[in-house]
């Protein structure tokens, strides 16, 4: 029997039922495709993304917050950062733009750790954000990349065959280091050794101590983390100021042995004074050629 004759013999109500069973799921799939369910992908143009979670992880004069932003960031390369933009009340033509390094990013969200400076142009506004508010963001930006298995790039420059990474982090300068540590722990074949030295002013200002200790214990010996405070030492935090360190002292602290300088790299991120001091000391020492600064 031909199709037309077959359709003619089916009662109208039954035909309607068959058609709706076919058409309704089809309409649903078209709707899902066109509305792109889930958060938007982060991109190089400014766009607004929702705050999914806000946590204060350290109180005090300069609190530290975690903001989880609903932005898909699967393609954000390890080592890169994002930019945030807020209006500038004193000059609307020049908005305030600052960089932040996500500590974690996955298929559906991106986590930022931000220290709030009460006199800051940007951070007091970030502190006021609530869950459900939106934030202007773009990225990824920056030239630092960790490609895995001991290979770094900075623009056109490549550092490869790196067996040991010495990380120096001043305060929130720990954020890019966390990204790299997470990548090394997650990648089974990546046996690059890491020694992260976190420097803060006081023990109370030490950031993510528990999380970093956990990362160290689940790294299978690949990652070592040391904590230092310039004013007070307590528990596992040693009293030590970066300003008192010489080049050879810094290299020794990071566990880089004589003869292993070329297969090692020093990464550093922190306040200007911190970075300036380390650069000067390492330059004077002259034995480390692989140095990357955020
Ligand atoms: C590549 C990159 C990645 C960054 N990633 C992060 C991150 O993940 N988390 C984060 O919190 N910040 C990060 N920063 C710093 C951030 O971009 C801002 O500079 C910072 O949040 C201060 O902004 P602000 O406008 O509130 O303060 P500003 O208006 O710039 O400064 C206000 C006051 O705060 C003091 N101050 C500012 N920054 C520091 C500092 N680092 N140490 C000591 N005193 C300071 C200054 O003395 C100044 O008086 C990053 C910076 C760069 C370049």
Name its key features:
about 290 residues, alpha/beta, Elongation Factor Tu (Ef-tu), domain 3, Rossmann fold, 2 domains, six-stranded parallel β-sheet, 16 strands, globular, binds flavin-adenine dinucleotide, Riboflavin_synthase-like_b-brl, FNR_nucleotide-bd, FAD-binding FR-type domain-containing protein, membrane
| Biggest sheet, spatial arrangement of strands | 4-3-7-1-2-6-5
Could you say what the CATH architecture of the largest domain is?
3-Layer(aba) Sandwich
Gyration radius over CA: 25 Å
Q: Which runs of at least 5 residues are low in confidence (pLDDT < 50)?
A: 28-35
User: What is the percent of helical residues?
Assistant: 25-40%
Based on Cα principal axes, name the global outline.
globular
* CATH topological fold name of the largest domain: Rossmann fold
Blueprint of the fold:
Blueprint (H helix, E strand, L loop, with lengths): L2 H7 L2 H24 L11 E12 L5 E6 L11 E6 L9 E5 L3 E2 L4 E6 L7 H5 L6 E8 L2 E5 L2 E4 L2 E3 L4 E7 L3 H13 L6 E8 L8 H10 L4 E7 L7 E3 L7 H7 L10 E6 L2 H14 L5 E3 L1
Bound molecules: flavin-adenine dinucleotide (FAD).
InterPro entries: CBR-like, Cbr1-like_FAD-bd_dom, FAD-bd_FR_type, FNR_nucleotide-bd, OxRdtase_FAD/NAD-bd, Riboflavin_synthase-like_b-brl
Protein name: FAD-binding FR-type domain-containing protein
Cofactor: FAD
């Amino acid at each position: 029997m031909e199709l037309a004759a077959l359709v003619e013999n089916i009662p109208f109500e039954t035909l309607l039922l068959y058609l709706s069973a076919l058409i309704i799921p089809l309409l649903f799939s078209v709707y899902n495709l066109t509305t792109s369910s889930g958060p938007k992908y982060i991109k190089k143009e400014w766009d607004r993304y929702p705050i999914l979670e806000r946590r204060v992880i350290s109180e005090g004069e300069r609190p530290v917050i975690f903001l989880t932003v609903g932005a898909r960031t699967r393609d954000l390369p390890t080592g890169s950062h994002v930019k945030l933009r807020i209006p500038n009340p004193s000059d609307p033509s020049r908005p305030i733009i600052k960089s932040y390094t996500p500590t974690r990013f996955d298929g559906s969200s991106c986590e930022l750790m931000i220290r709030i400076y009460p006199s800051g142009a940007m951070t007091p506004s970030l502190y006021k954000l609530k869950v459900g508010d939106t934030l202007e963001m773009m990225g990824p930006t920056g030239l630092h990349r960790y490609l895995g298995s001991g290979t770094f790039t900075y623009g056109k420059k490549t550092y490869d065959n790196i067996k040991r990474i010495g990380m120096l982090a001043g305060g929130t300068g720990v954020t890019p280091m966390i990204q790299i540590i997470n990548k090394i722990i997650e990648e089974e074949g990546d046996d690059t050794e890491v020694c992260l030295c976190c420097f803060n002013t006081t023990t109370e200002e030490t950031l993510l101590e528990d999380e970093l200790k956990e990362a160290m214990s689940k790294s299978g010996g690949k990652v070592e983390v040391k904590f230092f405070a310039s004013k007070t030492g307590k528990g596992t935090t040693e009293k030590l100021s970066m300003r008192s360190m010489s080049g050879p002292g810094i290299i020794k602290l990071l566990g880089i042995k004589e003869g292993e300088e070329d297969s090692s790299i020093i990464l550093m991120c922190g306040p200007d004074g911190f970075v300036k001091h380390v650069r000067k000391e390492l330059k004077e020492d002259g034995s480390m050629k692989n140095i990357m600064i955020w």
